[in-house]
Automatic annotation (TrEMBL):
Name of the molecule in the record: DUF2695 domain-containing protein
InterPro entries membership: DUF2695
Domain of life: Bacteria
């Protein structure tokens, strides 16, 4: 085994590096604070440094049936749907795309990209925030 040069003892990295040799998946985060940080990192910069329990919801086989698979799976990995769920929980949907637009802006997408994404949502039955969860996220997760 070769020792890597970057031996930074950042808590997030340790388990991932160790598990590489086993060819297994990175450790799934369970600490609430670390989960929050990972969600924020993926959302804003798109960088993934650890696995989340949420990742296992993704159903690749089912998702690839959708023509907009590439875009939708990117949004899933960037935690868009997770965030929308979080923001919408406890609220009743006002049947607009208010929260969706907020999140897409937070994700640093340009206006043109945001419009493109919203068109894809609408095409897939997501006319408002709650419908995006019911009709769009549901095409990517579960059985
Ligand atoms: Zn709604």
């Amino acid at each position: 085994m070769q020792l890597s040069n970057d031996q930074e003892t950042d808590n997030l990295d340790i388990d991932i590096e160790n598990s590489e040799n086993l060819g297994s998946k990175p450790q799934v985060l369970s600490d609430k604070k670390l989960i929050k940080e990972e969600v924020k990192r993926r959302l804003i910069s798109g960088i993934q440094t650890a696995a989340l329990e949420y990742d296992s919801l993704f159903n690749e086989e089912k998702a690839t049936l959708n023509k907009d698979y590439v875009l939708l799976s990117l949004l899933f990995r960037r935690m868009f749907f997770y965030k929308l769920n979080e923001k919408l929980s406890g609220l009743s949907c006002d049947h607009t795309l208010r929260l969706t637009k907020q999140i897409l802006t937070q994700m640093q997408f340009k206006r043109g990209k945001i419009n493109e994404i919203i068109d894809v949502f609408k095409k897939n039955g997501g006319q408002c925030d709650c419908e995006i969860l019911y009709n769009v996220e549901s095409q990517l997760i579960g059985k």
